[in-house]
Each structure stands twice: as C-alpha cells, then as structure tokens.
Design goal:
Chain lengths: 323, 319
C-alpha cells in the first residue's frame, strides 16, 4: 500500500470527493491558489477552478454561516478555518445556526457541511493559534466531532464527514500533517463513531486522540519494557463516541487512562471518564487517570510549550500510578 | 414597475393577513395561551409584503426574531404557523422551534432567527448556492436596524459584494434596537449609506408604503438576477408594539407612537387601491372577512392539535 502523509491523505480525500460529487466545494481563508495555510488544499484550485475552491475574506462568521446556508440549500461545502482558535469569532454561526437548524425546523433542514480546522500546539504559535478545543464542539447537540490521528484515518474520515448529512467539525492536528502512513489510492469511507484499537494490550487501556495517539503508542513501548502491555484505543470521533469499543477494552484490561492535548479540566477526557465510571465501573480495579494539558493558555517559549504538551513520560507516569 | 391587479390584491390580502395574525397573537399572549415570548410585526406589514411580492416561489428569504410577517408574506401556511407558535406537534417545526424558528424550506424560507444578525451569513450561503447551481434564484435577507450594527451583517454585505451574489439586503429600520434608539447606537441617519462601503446600491424607502418597498426590491431583484450583485434597501418603519409582548415601552413616547400609527400602511394602501379602482371598498371588506375566517380556522386547528409527545424530544438532532 502506498505511503502518504496525513496532509496528502486529506488532500486526496478532498480531490476524490470533489470529483465524485459536483455539490462539494471548498471555501476558506487562503484555500485557493495559496493552497491553504498548511497546504491541505494544494493543487485543488488548479484542478477545480475558483468556483469550487473559493478564497474568502478573513471573516470567520460568514465563512461558517455561508457554508451552513449553502448546505441548507443543497450544496455540500467543506469550509476551512486557518486555525481552530478562530472559531471563537464564528461560534454563533456554528452552534446556534448550523448545529441547531435541523432540530429547530423539525427535521426539515439538512446541513451537510464539513468544517475543517487545524488545532494543537507544537509550532511555537502561542496562545491564540495552538489550542485543542474539541470539548467545546462535543458539548453542542447537532454537531459531529471527528479527530483523526493517522493518514489512513484522516482520508477515510474526511470522506465520511463530507458525505455525512449533519454538520461535522473535522479537527486536524498541525503536528500530524507531515506524519506518513499507508493510505490506499482509492476513495474509502470510515464510519463516523467507530473507534480503532491502535495497539492491543492486556494491562491498561489508554484512550487517546489526535497527536496523543502517537504519544500513547510511544508510552506503550516504554511500558512494555517494564512488563506492562497497554492497549491504545483511538475513538477517532468524539461525537458520536464509540462507547462499545472503549468498554470492551476496559473489560479486558480493568484499567483506564485517557490522554488528550486539550486542557484536562472539563476536557474531552472528563466525558470519557464519566462514561466509563457510569457504564463500566464494575470492570475497573483502579481509579481512572487523565493526562491533558495544564489549566493555562498555550505558552510561546519553546521550553514552556514543551512543558505544556503532555508527553510519553506523563502517560507512563499515569499508568504506573495505577499499575 | 407597477404591479398588476392580481399582485395588488395579493399584497392587500397579505398585509391584512399579517395584521390579523399578529393581533390574534397579541390577544392570546395576553391571555397566557402562548408559551415563551413573541415579537410582533404590527405596523411593519408593508416591508415584508412589498419585498416578498417581488419574489417568486423559488426565491429565498432569511428572517429575524420578528419573523411572522416575513413568513406569511413568503407564503407561510397560517395553520402550520399558528400551531407552531402554540407549541403543537402539527406546527411547521413539530413544536421544536416556536415563534423564532419557523422555517419552510420548500417555500424558500430558511428560517426565522433568534439571534440578531444571525441570518446574514446564512443568506450569503443560500445566494451562493443559487449562483453555484446557476439556479436563477434570488435571496432576500431581512434584518433590523439593530442587526445592521452586527459584525455578521457587515461580513455578509462584504462577501455578497465581493462575490457578486444574487442577494438583496432588506433592512427594516423601526428606530429601536429593543429599547435603544437608533441615534444612540449608530452615527449614521441612513443605514443605506453603509452600502457605499461595499460598492452596492443603497436605497432608502418609506417602509410604510408597500408599493415603494415593492418597487425598490423589484429593482434590486432584477439587478441580482442579472448577475450584478447585491443591494441594500432601508425601509423606514415603526413597530407598534414593544420589542416583545410585555415590553412596557418606557423608552418611547405616546406622541411618537400616535404619529406612526397615523401612517398605518394598510389604510394608506387601501385608499390607493380604491382610488385607482383596483379594489372596491366592498371587495376590500370581503377580503378582510375571508382572512379573519382563515385565521379563526388556523386558531381552531392549532388549539385542537396535540402537543408533541416527550418521546419525540431527541428526534432530528442529527440527519
């Protein structure tokens, strides 16, 4: 199977969906000739032209709202915000408009839009360009939240997000764009809401998302040296959340650690931990542990940023505190 | 552009329909029969009627929190609207939306909206979809003087102009953003002046003159259909009631209200119709009787309809 980067996998998904369905178009900041801030839309402007790959003004409310209005009018927009941090400007159009339209209108509206947003720290972009905000979107009924960790998942999940009839927030990690992995050339869809076990193990379940999947896998190798076999479960979607796969893993390992880059306090791990406590407590023989960012904005200076982002040692320490 | 007789009669019917519908709601709200709250359109009937009369069934609108007039003028069904406002299962939104969220996508109504300035970006999307699909449809975005200050509105005006979208921004300037008078919330006298910043036509019309609204919107619609891009039409009008039912209106004086009630758009239009011979006094009375009856039927339908069952709560969160 050919090797591709996460970025190439996303680009291929966009290209193939645009070839398949004329209703799919791209809009966002610098997505045209410039090819997107991180290069995800490179070559698409040349292939599909400016009608279908549309540069917008730097006005996030109308990017999100225009996508929602176009989606409710029969198109299938893929909108991009340059950084997830900019969603604050456009939040009303996402959470009060796009997410609620179908429900408020008694099922009469369909809003098949995808909103792609890079998130995450690691490039020295500081407090307003580095956040992980998935918990915000998880809290909004009506939105689906997709958060891929590998090139293979990125392509299959983006294709599913575009084909899905509900508004979908698609969160890419900017430190993953250069990561390579096997990706089939043909188009394929990965069902939204299906977790993937990235590593099998018997002693502890580590539920990790996005970049933290890779960190958890590195932690698992360290733990292996100490005789602890960790199972790494990547939910891939936070809404819908694949409770079944997580609980099945807990039944096997009887211990749960959750790792994400978002701020730990009221982060996505809180929901996963609560779910496990409510539905799988009988299978747990140790307290649930969470690994997330500390409760502060993302700092700029490299040593501070490094201290902010959870690393493999943090995950190892969390596991060892219960195993 | 002079409308034909059929259009004139339809306008007269529509204005009366909105007036009687809203008065009925005023009474029911006072009697505690309507849940939540309502924002009535009384006094502004000429704006929605004039604007929507310039549209075809396939054209689209986005509406506001004060949306009943827009929805009725775009062809909204009296029974389904009344039932929705009463929170019944038979309403437009199965009782899920209420007064501020009524939509009928088949009629091109992309929804009333509970957020001031919320509709502008959605309207750009609807207009873009028309352009992208070469559908030859136009979108009208209704918004108030308060919404005209919102960033979303400015972003939408800008995008619509930059992309030459088939979009007509119809501003209903009723002088107050809730309690705050226009002079305290913006430095301009005419909201239409802001069109110049986006290189689009900006027109001020008497919002209590249905024919003036119709004419200005028709011109803008024609321009939009010709691919010449958006326009901004400011309709100066006044709401007879408070921002919401129950608003004590301490921020404005009786003289001001009396002055505007003297400019009631319905008798003004009726006088013109009778004078021109388009409608006789007798015909006008017959139209009013018929609409009053239709509204009574809608009330009966709404009141006799069941409430939604709690088992329906989670329906339609996702597609």
């Amino acid at each position: 199977m050919p090797e591709k980067t996460y970025l190439q996998a996303l680009n291929e998904a966009l290209r193939q969906e645009m070839e398949r369905d004329e209703k799919v178009f791209i809009m966002g900041e610098d997505v045209g000739q410039f090819g997107g801030c991180f290069g995800v839309t490179q070559g698409l402007f040349e292939k599909f032209g400016e009608e279908r790959v549309r540069d917008t003004p730097i006005t996030e409310s109308v990017i999100v709202g225009c996508a929602a209005g176009a989606a409710a009018s029969g198109l299938r927009p893929v909108a991009e915000l340059m950084f997830v941090d900019f969603i604050g400007v456009a939040m009303d159009q996402l959470f009060n408009q796009a997410a609620k339209m179908r429900f408020m209108f008694g099922g009469k509206a369909t809003v098949p839009m995808t909103l792609r947003m890079p998130q995450g720290a690691g490039i020295g972009a500081a407090a307003q360009h580095s956040q992980s905000l998935e918990a915000w979107f998880m809290h909004i009924p009506g939105l689906k939240v997709v958060i891929p960790s590998t090139p293979y998942d990125a392509k299959g999940l983006l294709i599913s997000a575009i084909r899905d009839d509900s508004p979908t927030v698609f969160l890419e990690h900017k430190m993953l764009y250069g990561v390579s992995g096997e990706v089939p050339d043909e188009a394929y869809a990965i069902e939204l809401g299906k977790a993937d076990v990235k590593r099998e193990g018997s002693d502890v379940t580590i539920v990790a998302t996005s970049l933290m999947v890779h960190t958890a896998l590195a932690a698992a190798e360290k733990l292996k040296a100490d005789g602890i076999e960790a199972e790494v479960v990547d939910p891939r979607c936070l809404n819908p959340l694949d409770k079944y796969t997580i609980i099945e893993s807990i039944k096997k390992t009887n211990a749960l650690v959750i790792a994400h880059e978002a701020v730990q306090y009221a982060g996505p791990g809180a929901e996963i931990a609560a779910m496990a406590a409510e539905e799988a407590l009988d299978y747990l023989d140790a307290p649930i542990k969470r690994v997330g960012a500390p409760f502060c904005p993302v700092p700029f200076s490299p040593p501070l940023e490094k201290a902010y982002i959870p690393d493999a040692d943090d995950i190892v320490a969390a596991v060892k505190s219960i195993r | 552009m002079t409308p034909d007789k059929k259009t004139l009669v339809h306008m007269y019917e529509t204005m009366n329909k909105i007036r009687m519908f809203e008065k009925k709601l005023q009474d029911f709200f006072a009697a505690g029969e309507i849940p939540g709250f309502v924002h009535l359109y009384l006094g502004e009937e000429a704006v929605a009627t004039g604007a929507c009369s310039a549209l075809t069934d396939k054209d689209k609108i986005t509406s506001t929190h004060r949306g009943h007039g827009h929805l009725l003028a775009k062809g909204g069904d009296l029974k389904l609207m009344m039932a929705e406002i009463f929170g019944r299962k038979t309403g437009y939104c199965l009782g899920k939306g209420g007064s501020m969220h009524i939509a009928d996508l088949d009629l091109g109504i992309l929804g009333a909206n509970g957020i001031v300035g919320g509709g502008g970006p959605l309207a750009t999307g609807a207009a873009f979809a028309s352009k992208y699909s070469k559908a030859d449809t136009v979108t009208v975005c209704f918004f108030g003087d308060g919404a005209s200050n919102q960033g979303t509105t400015q972003e939408s005006l800008n995008l619509a102009s930059a992309w030459k979208l088939p979009l007509v921004f119809v501003n209903e300037n009723n002088g107050y953003g809730i309690s705050c008078p226009q002079c305290k919330s913006m430095a301009v006298t005419d909201i239409a002046d802001r069109a110049a910043a986006y290189d689009m036509p900006g027109v001020v019309v008497d919002g209590n003159d249905v024919l003036a609204v119709f004419e200005a919107v028709s011109e803008a619609v024609k321009r939009a259909r010709n691919g010449e891009g958006p326009s901004l039409i400011e309709c100066k009008t006044y709401r007879w009631r408070g921002h919401f039912e129950g608003d004590a209106c301490t921020y404005r004086c009786q003289e001001e209200l009396d002055e505007w009630m003297g400019k009631d758009p319905i008798p003004r239009f009726e006088a013109k119709l009778v004078e021109s011979g388009a409608v006789s006094k007798k015909e006008a009375a017959a139209i009013q009787d018929r609409i009053a009856k239709e509204i009574e039927e809608a009330v009966t339908f709404a009141k006799q309809s069941p409430f939604p069952d709690p088992s329906e709560l989670l329906d339609n969160v996702y597609a």
